[in-house]
């Protein structure tokens, strides 16, 4: 089967994320952001969209996974993403592999070290209308949600992506 | 759910692979290797084991995926891998992302470029007894199998892995 290497992306999910979910009790106050505090269940089993490597202070290796709705949209090059699509970005420290390098006979191999964070984009055009139709979420390595200052940077950054707030392209295969 | 970051691995699948599948008609001649020429169907949908980055001439980003048998063995820390386990290593060129770097304001973002190859390890302790119980396979970006000279390097290299011929550790998550 041939997968198109097309057009969608989440590469800069690193910038953090904010989810403007407003429960009924607080709908009068649209200025109070309520962060997503629940990690979507089963995300570690989702299908692969692509991989990524960030240098600099992030120093990460990442995997971008999608739930079935997101994967279908990617493969059909469907934009904007439909409601229900969730994209997960799993990040680990980019660490040298002593075992691999020993076998290779040179230092060239880097692997996923400890988890650094996991981030999500959840599509609901109505619920998250103020942030491009996406709810953003960030969870630290201990499972706690990211700080508000970090989370507030996500939506403005993803708005710069040319494909419905998503940076990551679907990695080609054959 | 907490996944253990444990003990298995395929990091050096890059070294290529040889599958000694000997059809009934040729079983008398054990010295004639028959390469695996069929890509396991559906591998692009398999679950994520980990990610990898190779510098140097390989210059790759990789994703290591597993079929259900392999994933179960990883999560249960079961060694050796049971028959039926298949581990896939998908490799892409490690390319700078102009779009991401523009948003970040600095050159730090690398993503999966064109496919370079896909490799497999197929566990069948009896069938592949001469290569550690694993059949190795390599497919070039055009889908053709790797050359014999390349494929012959796989088994001796993977024999150096400390966990049943497998280098790649299961990437932790939470």
Keywords:
homodimer; 174 residues; alpha+beta; Chalcone isomerase; five-stranded antiparallel β-sheet; 28% strand; globular; disordered N terminus
Question: What would a concise description of this structure say?
Answer:
The structure is a homodimer of 174-residue chains. With 174 residues, chain A is of the alpha+beta class.
Task: List the SSEs and their pairings.
The structure is a homodimer of 174-residue chains.
Chain A (H helix, E strand, L loop, with lengths): L46 E8 L5 E7 L1 H8 L10 E11 L1 H7 L4 E15 L10 E7 L7 H4 L2 H5 L16
Antiparallel strand pairs in A: 1-2, 2-3, 3-4, 4-5
Strand order of the largest sheet of chain A: 1-2-3-4-5
Overall form of chain A: globular
> Taking Cα atoms only, what radius of gyration of chain A do you get, to the nearest Å?
17 Å
Give the number of DSSP strands of chain A.
5
Give me the CATH superfamily of chain A.
Answer: Cytochrome P460
Provide the β-strand percentage band of chain A: 25-35%
- The mean pLDDT of chain A is 83
Oligomer: homodimer
Structural class designation of chain A: alpha+beta
Percent of residues in helices of chain A comes to 10-25%
In DSSP terms (H or I, runs of 4 or more residues), the helix count of chain A works out at 4
Helix-strand pattern of chain A: EEHEHEEHH
Give the termini distance of chain A in whole angstroms: 6 Å
Main beta-sheet annotation of chain A = 5 strands, antiparallel
In the CATH hierarchy, the architecture of chain A is: 3-Layer(bba) Sandwich
- CATH topology term of chain A: Chalcone isomerase
- Quickly name the level 1 CATH class of chain A: Alpha Beta
Number of domains of chain A: 1
Largest interface comes to: A-B, 56 and 57 residues
Low-confidence stretches of chain A: 1-34
């Amino acid at each position: 089967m041939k997968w198109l290497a097309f057009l969608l992306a989440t590469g800069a999910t690193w910038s953090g994320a904010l989810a403007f979910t407003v429960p009924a009790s607080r709908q009068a106050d649209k200025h109070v952001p309520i962060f997503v505090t629940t990690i979507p269940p089963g995300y570690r089993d989702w299908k692969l969209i692509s991989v990524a490597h960030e240098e600099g202070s992030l120093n990460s290796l990442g995997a971008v996974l999608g739930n079935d709705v997101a994967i279908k949209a990617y493969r059909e090059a469907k934009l904007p993403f439909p409601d229900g699509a969730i994209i997960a970005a799993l990040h680990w420290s980019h660490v040298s592999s002593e075992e691999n390098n020993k076998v290779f006979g040179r230092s060239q191999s880097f692997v996923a070290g400890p988890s650094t964070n996991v981030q999500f984009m959840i599509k609901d055009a109505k619920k998250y209308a103020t942030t491009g139709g996406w709810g953003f979420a960030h969870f630290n390595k201990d499972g706690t949600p990211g700080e508000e200052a970090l989370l507030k940077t996500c939506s403005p950054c993803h708005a710069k992506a040319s494909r419905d707030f998503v940076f990551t392209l679907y990695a080609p295969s054959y």
